Structures are given as structure tokens and as C-alpha cells.
Amino acid sequence: MEDFQTTRSSAYWEHFPHVADMGIRGFGGTPSQAFAQAALAMTAIICNPEAVTPHQPVAVRCEAPDRELLLVDWLNALIYEMAVRGMLFSRFEIDIEGNVLTATAWGEAVDRHRHEPAVEVKGATYTELRVYRDRRSLWVAQCVVDV
Amino acid sequence: MDINRFERLSDFAWRVAPVRPMRVPVVIYADEALLREMDDKVYEQAVNVASLPGIVGASYAMPDAHWGYGFPIGGVAAFDAAQGGVVSAGGVGFDISCGVRTLLTGLKHGDVEPLKHELAEALYASIPVGLGSRGQIRLDNKGMDEMLNGGAEWAVARGYGMPADLARIEEHGRMQGAAASEVSGHAKDRQRDEMGTLGSGNHYLEVQEVAEIFDPATAESFGVALGDVVVSIHCGSRGLGHQIGTDFLRRMQVAAADHGIALPDRELACAPIDSVVGQSYLGAMRAGINCALANRQIITHLTRQVFHEILPRASLELLYDVSHNTCKLEEHTVEGKRRWLYVHRKGATRAFGPGHPDLPAMFQKTGQPVLIGGSMGTASYILAGNRESEDRCFASACHGAGRSMSRHQATRIWHGRQVIDELAGRGIIVRSPSPRGVAEEAPGAYKDVDAVVRAADRAGLARLVAKLKPLVCIKG
After folding, report:
1. Is the peptide bond before B21 cis (omega within 30 degrees of 0)?
2. Is B242 near chain A, with CB under 8 Å?
3. Residue B83 CA to its chain's centroid (Å)
4. Could you report the per-residue pLDDT of B396-429, keeping only the tens digit for each?
5. Could you give the CA distance from residue A123 to residue B271 in angstroms, rounded to a whole number?
6. Which residues 6+ apart lie within 8 Å of B425 measured at CB?
7. Distance in angstroms (rounded) separating the CA atoms of residues B175 and B379
8. Is the Cβ–Cβ distance between B77 and B54 less than 8 Å?
9. Best interface-test mutation with B: which of A52, A127, A142, A145 has the largest number of B CBs within 10 A?
10. Does A102 contact B at CB distance below 8 Å?
11. Which pLDDT does position B406 carry in this prediction?
12. In this structure, is residue A40 part of a structural domain?
């Protein structure tokens, strides 16, 4: 894995390999930032997130007994919104209070020519699911998503 | 994978003896090279499955097995409800009843070759494919429930295909015991515009040529001859199945704990078959199977329309439709006794042999067709179920090549345009909305499908009948 310590700001995302699917990993100074970056990593599985204009806000709320389940619920809530609204998202504002996550995701309708979506995401899984602080004290939120 | 962990039962079967908490052994069917290349996670996951309550016989893995969610992809496991057996959403997968159907066309390669480009364009224009595509049907609440309970039978009753198709679909086109009421509103929302869509990832529609015959008598019985053109469709239950998988993986996290089932991996989430959540999942999952059967039936209808327009001489008759992500209640012989078991096949194809009572008359002598999808550019195969498959792993066989490389790695090696041009140079036309999607699905990112089906044949899981070579690939 690359060492981002000296080359990146504290909030960023990356993909990690899974033989059939794709791993997503978000980093941030707070769990909320890490969750937002993980969501961005998920959009990046589908298309270049920079090509997605954050026009239209969509409100999301989830509740789960622990932080890891909250991450899966958050990503699955976005997958649902993407599917039924035919949208892609590129900006996220998240507030996590205890077991409750409230968020706004901004995005736009899928444009098959401009976004050239590579693949659709079926669901976020519990494989490699972890939410933790790394040795740099950054929050990390990760799991494998099924595509 | 370190093969020293295994006892070699034969050149194509490998066993891990049960050690606590395993309740049964692990058996992997593969040749030595495939086993060595197999991900260590397959071993770990097959061992975990072997520890689940009520498992019967062994935790099996097919020659194309790879790292999945809780269960390995290419995993087969049967559970007895009377012995506290469980049902697992991860043991079925997100794409419930993903499967393959193959249509005969009555055409030879020479008939299609001059019109190949026209055919590719027309199929690509007619069959909704890739993210953001929508089907022509929009289901209201009543229509959705009818579809979920009716499967391909529902589709045929609405003019999508012919009644004769139904006998050539597993479960005769309609999965019994489906409960549309157990499917969440979210799952139904995701499906409203998705009927008759192919999806993305490894899903495709291919026009193929029969390139080799291994078992002439069975091939003749299936109506397949050298040089024939066939069409194969690989897709599943679309957004509905994905959401059912998501919903029940979550519910089973809680259910497993409530029933005192210790999970070595969260993804193994399961519930006793005889529990509220277990029964609810079975009803919803069976509705998901019907959705997949209806979906492939509608795509078949669209394909027939295209052929009728471009090659009116063609007569597209269904050979068979198989599903490779399911959990089904079946009667099997275990140590000489007949028992009803819930057989999970995650990335594994049912392979009922000759004489099986569930097979229609035309397959009574041959066993059922076992349809193995390749990846774009590589061969696909038609196999047939054997009697001995029953003794190997509850009448199951492999389902495809199985990935050998991550999507991430594939895009570092190949570019979509390059893959499309290379395949065009070999006479294979690829049409896809996404160049990156094509790169991620590059043929080199998959295991050698030839080796996988050879191992399945040698291990006695199913016997080789014919090899199919792609001519046109419509890729999600």
C-alpha cells in the first residue's frame, strides 16, 4: 500500500483489491470525514467522482448498534438512493451522533455519455469491514462492496 | 493455497478433516494447479461454513472457487432444518438466482457471419445494458407482486416468450414458495424500472458458435451440433435481489446472535431455517429467484425480436435456464438415507443427473444441461448432469471461470479500447457502454475456464458436452 502520510491531506480515500469485487477505504480526522471519503471511494468504483456535479441534495439517515454496521448502512442507503433516483453522488456532509447518522449527499442524474459508468454497485458487505483509528490517529472506514 | 493442508482423495478431489469447531469436512474439487492458484480465503471460508449448525455431508468448493462473502463463491453447503440447520443470505449472494440461459437459433456460423455487425448493433440498441439503463416495463405494486410470485410464467402470460419455454427453465419457470410480502419496499423500489435489463459487471449476452463437441449423443439430444449458432444470457435478479441480500444480511446479524449462533465472520450471518427470519428470507429469496427468471425471460423475448428482424430464418428455442446463486429444498441421499435438505449454491450450478424426477422428459436420459459462462472473449461450455454428481456434492457443478485478478489490477494492465480491438482482431465484436467496465472484465482477469470445466468433468460433477466460442458480446 502507498504511504500517504506525507503526500496527502488528512481526508482522502483509496481502493484496495478484492479478487471478485472492490474494497473501499476512507480516511479522515473524524469518523464523519472517514465515512464521507468512503462514500467518495464508492462513487469512484462507478466513475470519476470529479465528473459528478454536486447539484442536487438528498437527505439520508441511518441508525445502527455499532459504528461498523453504521458504515454498511450508510453505504447501502447511498446505493439505494443511487438506484432509485438514477443519481451519482460526489459531495457528502455527515453528522454522527452516537448510533445515528444524518447526512446530505449531493450529486446529479447519471449521464451515461459523460460519466461512462463502469459498473453498478450491488451492495456494501461485511467483508473487511472495519472502522478504526490508525497509528496516525486518522479515522479509517473500510469494507468490500459487491459489484 | 498450500496443498499440504489437504488429503488428496483423487487427482480432482481434496479433503480437510473436521477439527473443532468444524462439524463436517471440507472437500474441494479441483486439479492440483487450480487448487494451488486458489485464494487462501477459499480454505478459510469453506472451513467456517463447515462449522455452521445443521450442515450435512461436507462444506464443498467447486474448481472455480474464489473469495466470497462468508461463503466462498463456488461454494455448496446443505443444511437439515430438523437438526437446527441454517439458511444464510451470504450463502446465496447478493445477485439472487444469477444464472445463464442458452438459446438455440437453428442457424450456422456462415448464416450469421455476414450480418454479425448489424446483429451486434441491433442487440445493443434493444437490450438495456449497464448502469443507468431502464427497461420498457414499469411495474406497479400489484404487477410487482404478481411477477415475484409468478417468475417466467408471469412473463410468458404477458407475451414475453412461449409456454414451451417454461419446461426448459429450472423449477419449470416458477419457484414455488415465493412470498412477495417478505420483500421490502426498498427492494421493490429498486426493481420498478429494471425488468428486462442485463445489468453490469460480469453480466452479458453473447452470440456464440459451437466450436467443439465432446459428447455427440448428448449434444444431439440437446439439439447442438458443430458450427451451430447459439445465444447465451448471463444475468440475475437485478436491484431487487441485491436489496434482498442487503436487507437479510443485516437482519441475520441480529438473528444469529438471538439464536446463540457464534459467527467466526460477520458475513456468515444466518438464521435457523425454522425461525421467523429464516422463513422470511426463504420467501423473499424465492421471490428473488422468480424475478431473475422473469428478467431472463423478457431479455429472451427482446433477443428473439432482434433476430426476427435481422435473421428472420432464425428460430430461437430455449435449451435451458440455470441459476447459480440459490438455496433450494431438495431430496438427497446421505449415507444411504433420503433426506430433505436446504442446498446453498453460491456460484455453483445445479447438476441433476439422468432420471431425476424434477427434470422434464427431454432431459430424463441425458441429465440437465449445466451451462457454464466464460468471460468475454473466452469459451463457454455446455455440460450435463451425471448420476454420480449426486454422490459428489448434492448434484452441483461449477458456474464459470471465476476471477483470478481484482478489477483494480485489471485496469492497471488493460485499457477498454485495447481489449475491444484485440477481441475484434479475433473476430469477436464487443459492444459496451463502458470502456473501463470492459477493461475490468478483460479475459485475462479470469481463471482458465477450460481448466475449470475439465476439472468439473474429471471430478464427476458434470460431463462435458460442447464448447462455445463467442462471436458477439453485449457487455454490461
Report:
1. yes
2. yes
3. 28
4. 999 998 778 888 889 889 999 999 999 999 999 9
5. 20
6. none
7. 30
8. no
9. A127
10. no
11. 83
12. yes
Q: What is the pLDDT of residue A8?
A: 53
- Please state the domain extents for chain B: 3-404+446-475
Q: Do A22 and B131 touch (CB under 8 A)?
A: no
Q: Are B202 and B130 in contact (CB under 8 A)?
A: no
- Listed by number, the residues of chain B in 173-202 with a beta carbon closer than 8 Å to a beta carbon of chain A are 186, 189-190, 192, 199-201
Q: How far apart are the first and last CA of chain A?
A: 22
CA A127, CA B8: separation in Å to the nearest integer? Answer: 30
Closest CA to B289 of B77, B96, B84: B96
Provide the number of structural domains found in chain A.
1
- Identify whether A7 is part of a domain: no
Residue of B61, B56, B54 lying closest to B6 (CA atoms): B61
**Cβ A69–B253 below 8 Å, yes or no?**
yes
Q: Residue B171: which region, alpha, beta or left (left: phi > 0; alpha: psi -120 to 50)?
A: left
Residue of B131, B186, B435 lying closest to A80 (CB–CB) = B186
Cell of B344: 446453498
CB-based contact, B258 to chain A, within 8 Å: no
Contact (Cβ atoms closer than 8 angstroms) between residue B350 and residue B396: yes
Residue A28's domain comprises 12-146
CA B166 to chain centre: 18
Give per-residue pLDDT as tens, A76-87: 999 999 999 999
**A5 located within any domain:** no
Q: Which of B239, B245, B434 sits opposite A117 (nearest CB)?
A: B434
Mutate to test the interface with A, among B408, B413, B432, B447 (most CBs of A within 10 A): B408
Amino acid at B366: T
What number does CATH give the domain B3-404+446-475?
3.90.1860.10
For B287-303, what is the mean pLDDT? 98
For chain B, positions 49-108, list CB contacts with chain A under 8 A: 66-70, 73, 93-95
Nearest to A116 among B69, B265, B435 (CB): B435
Q: Within a domain: residue A70?
A: yes
Read off the C-alpha cell for B224.
447442438
**ipTM for this model:** 0.90
d(CA B418, CA B435): 9
CB contact under 8 A, B95 and A122: yes
